[in-house]
TrEMBL record:
Its main location: periplasm. SUPFAM superfamilies: Carboxypeptidase regulatory domain-like, Cupredoxins. InterPro entries: CarboxyPept-like_regulatory, Cupredoxin, MauL. It comes from Duganella margarita. Keywords: Signal. The lineage of its organism: Bacteria, Pseudomonadati, Pseudomonadota, Betaproteobacteria, Burkholderiales. It comes from the Bacteria. Residues 1-18 form the signal peptide. The keyword Signal applies. It is found in: Periplasm. This is Methylamine utilization protein. The keyword Signal applies. One of its GO terms (cellular component) is periplasmic space.
Amino acid sequence: MQYRHFAFCLGLVGAAHAGATGIAVQVQDATGKVLPDTVVYIEAEGGATGGKPGTALIEQKGLKFLPMVTVVQTGATINFPNNDKVRHHIYSFSPAHKFDQKLYSGQAASPQIFDKAGTVVLGCNIHDKMIAYVKIVDTPYFAKSDGAGSVRIDLPAGGKYVVKAWHYNTVGGATPEQVLTVKAGELATAVFKLPMKPIAADDAAL
């Protein structure tokens, strides 16, 4: 069923982007259930990247980080506005980017530059259940899977590319990859099945 849905989506994508070069990816868990919020990123074989780091925004609202998963290119700046009625104390102990923003409201938090590839876990010292993830990648070709577990990423030219898929809840932090040859003007496809950890009861209630 999942594969038929994927094929149908690819048909729509192909009609809307005829002649474009890119890769369409479907992400599932080991049982075939689709996986939203999976980071998919593509690296040109040989390591060439290009692109320009941009900016992103992770707000605090309803005692949550929104979005829970963010992906940016190395060197990007992220802003952390607090749109709650209470103050937050956000932080990260992750090696890819450590910071500690004391209690604040509104726009007072300093923008953070994420200049090292890796995974950053965000937390709040006041509200323990607040958690979010930032994936920093050395490529401008990236996206998150949608509610159907689907991703489409356009590429500047045909060639050999390495496609990687990352989800915050995979067993052992697995980031599987596939090498694809993409022809100019065509849409290559890939399917990833990720090994997932069981969802804790507390997490399921969030």
